[in-house]
Amino acid sequence: xxxxxxxxxxxxxxxxxxxxxxxxxxxxxxxxxxxxxxxxxxxxxxxxxxxxxxxxxxxxxxxxxxxxxxxxxxxxxxxxxxxxxxxxxxxxxxxxxxxxxxxxxxxxxxxxxxxxxxxxxxxxxxxxxxxxxxxxxxxxxxxxxxxxxxxxxxxxxxxxxxxxxxxxxxxxxxxxxxxxxxxxxxxxxxxxxxxxxxxxxxxxxxxxxxxxxxxxxxxxxxxxxxxxxxxxxxxxxxxxxxxxxxxxxxxxxxxxxxxxxxxxxxxxxxxxxxxxxxxxxxxxxxxxxxxxxxxxxxxxxxxxxxxxxxxxxxx
Length: 315
Description:
There is one protein chain. The protein has helices at residues 2-28, 53-63, 82-97, 110-120, 154-160, 162-166, 186-192, 195-199, 209-217, 260-263, 269-274, 295-314; strands spanning 37-42, 67-69, 102-108, 127-133, 221-226, 243-244, 253-254, 278-282. By secondary structure, the protein is an alpha/beta fold. The strands form two sheets. The chain has a six-stranded parallel sheet, with helices on both faces. A two-stranded antiparallel sheet has the order 6-7. α2 packs across α12 (295-314) and α3 packs across α4 (110-120).
């Protein structure tokens, strides 16, 4: 009998303690708990998801928000066509997103192109923010700056004739060439590349264009991170939707606002920007690989953006 009385007494104390915690949380806790916001991260080409564990650990340690690294298309399989990756990664992202009220989508390098495709193809999504991390959102042109140091004459060839090879059906089976955009051979690009022009709504009358624009425009915030230390993406401004003019290397690089994507508002980029929903964070003196998890970049560009959107969702 004494034992039962002690258990009952402790049971009452525990019940009162739980009720007190509940009241305190209701009074002082945010409207949107961190548990209702998750982060989904897609890695880049020719690498594995676990190479972004430093990113995951830094975010979870500092913000307490769970980061899901997409375990798909690692290393050699990352050259599968972008269209296929968008479809299958999209299924994985939607399954994870069903656990949360809102998610933050992050895409590094090629993963940013894939994640944008996932968002555009996803009706009624719950993606509050998309962080594009050193990702060629306007495509790539020529050769990676890094390659010029190792392959003689490659840059010359890339500027003068590589498009003839990359726009063949054989090379378009490889995902890393699916976003090669030669502005001096634009019509050939539109005819030869299947998915990137679709994603950008560049071809007139393409099915689903208006819905893709609606889906992308639904984002509360778009964060574009890149910098002039970039040694893989040419031009580096593509990470922030800037690009070469129609004169290619004979011309110059224009910012996002001067591009066809923006001026024609093809997929909602101008809509987001004019409503104050685009943030460009330029971080200098780090190369492409360092954009994975450089501490200074994370604390300057990523952590403040995530904190701000979580606060906005809590209001």
